Amino acid sequence: MKAAVLFEPKTKLSIEDVTVDAPGPHEVLIRTVACGVCRSDLHFVDGAYPHALPGIPGHEAAGVVEAVGSEVATVKVGDHVVTCLSAFCGHCEFCLTGRMALCISGDVRRPKDVRPRLMLGDMPVAQMLNLSAYAEMMLVHEHACVAIDPEMPLDRAAILGCAVTTGAGAIFNAAKVVPGETVCVVGCGGVGLAAVNAARIAGAGKVIAVDPVAEKRAIAEKLGATHVVDAASETAADEVIELTRGGVHHAIEAVGRPQSAATAVKVLRRGGTATILGMMPLTEKVGLSALDLLADKKVQGALMGRNHFPIDIPRLVDFYQRGALDLDTIIADRMPLERINDAFDELRKGDTTRSVIVFDA
Question: What mean pLDDT do residues 196-200 have?
Answer without folding.
Answer: 98
